Amino acid sequence: MDRKRIRFGIIGLGLMGKEFCSAISRWCHLLSDGNIPVLNGICSRNPVNWKWYTDNFPDIEVKTDNYKELIASDKIDAVYCAVPHNLHEQFYIDIINSGKHLLGEKPFGIDLRANENILKAIKMNPGVLVRCSSEFPYFPACQRLIKWLETGSYGRLIEVRAGFHHSSDMDLNKPVNWKRMVEINGEYGCMGDLGMHTLHIPLRMGWKPVSVSADLQNIARTRPDGKGGIVPCKTWDNAVLTCKTKDPKTASEFSMVIETKRMAPGATNTWFIEVYGTEGSAKFSTRDPKSFKFLRTEGKEQGWTRMDIGSQSAIPSITGGIFEFGFSDAFLQMIGLFISELSGLTTLGVFRTVMPEETTWSHKLFTAALESYRSGRTVEIDYN
Q1: What is the pTM for the complete model shown?
Q2: Where are the alpha helices (DSSP H) in the chain?
Q3: N or C end of the chain: smaller count of CB under 10 Å?
Q4: Mean pLDDT throughout 45-64?
Q5: Does 211 share its domain with 360?
Q6: Is 383 inside any structural domain?
């Protein structure tokens, strides 16, 4: 096939914007027949943030502090948007209505109403590809776990545990930022910021919670404001959601526990999933990123097998299979799959990026979790 250049604009030039640019600058690393992403535009309300991008990507054609100028440009085909949650609704809708393809950050709206409005815009623009960012499932050992799940090797599910743990907020002298402000981050707190990562695999497997009982913690109730004062912190630091869930493979119910924690001692950036079943179990954690762990149930005693997985990625790359794989590689794989979909390569048979409807399911879960915490009872979830 003829390969063409997909001209990207980035809205939000922070940490993840730089990761995106680094990924596409390494495009020759992938052995893919898809189109080629290039950075053609940048947007930040603070032009000081432009410097790293213009220093490293001197051919950028669109530089602006107004996102509407970027999405109106005929020099932009697609957008990676990484802005605070309160901006998602308006920004994402405007991007979609402009006809630009969108890879957006989670949670796709500050709340359920905002998310539903984004989904309406997607429905009105069927020619626009829209996906949500989530890179952790693309570690090769986790890809092995996904393939194991697809075979139904677990038998009947007993329990699934998925989580994302940070510990940077254990520093109580860390100044407040937008993720600690309800008006910007949203009432979900840590659930909105970390939850879609934990739900990517379960929702893709069809494990949609039917009810939830939520334990939410606001641990650091105040923080320095960076100006010598102290301000309140009203967002949830940690959340543990215990869900009744149904497995479509067996039509049986099981327990699923979702953990999103910003105050998890000792965890720098630990993402994990554990699946326990009557015939087999498996687990993966970024704490031990090379290993796929599994067991087969044979009699009353079982033992875990730990298998080292090299760099056998979803999209083949130039990296030898014996070498290491890391976060930047997972991010590149995620972008690669988004570009593959844009290129019409839908027969890869690999685990795709988060679908828009999956973000809505996550919002319904988080909204029910808030109600559960307020009422002190288990809340059923309606996906209609």
Answers
A1: 0.96
A2: 15-25, 51-56, 67-72, 85-97, 112-124, 140-150, 182-185, 190-204, 327-342, 356-375
A3: C
A4: 95
A5: yes
A6: no
337 located within any domain: no
Count the domains in the chain: 2
Domain that holds residue 98: 5-132
Could you tell me if 144 and 109 lie in one domain? no
Assess if residue 176 is contained within a domain: yes
- Specify the length of the chain in residues: 384
Do 314 and 235 sit in the same domain of this protein? Answer: yes
176-184 contacts at long range (C-beta below 8 A, 24 or more positions apart): 176/223, 176/224, 176/225, 176/226, 176/231, 176/233, 178/84, 179/235, 180/220, 180/223, 180/233, 180/234, 180/235, 181/234, 181/235, 182/234, 182/235, 183/86, 184/84, 184/85, 184/86
Pair (66, 175) in one structural domain: no
CA nearest neighbour of 144 among 270, 272, 277, 313: 313
Q: In Å, how far from its chain's centre is CA 35?
A: 23
pLDDT digits 0-9 by tens, 321-373: 889 999 999 999 999 999 999 988 765 567 889 999 999 999 999 999 999 99
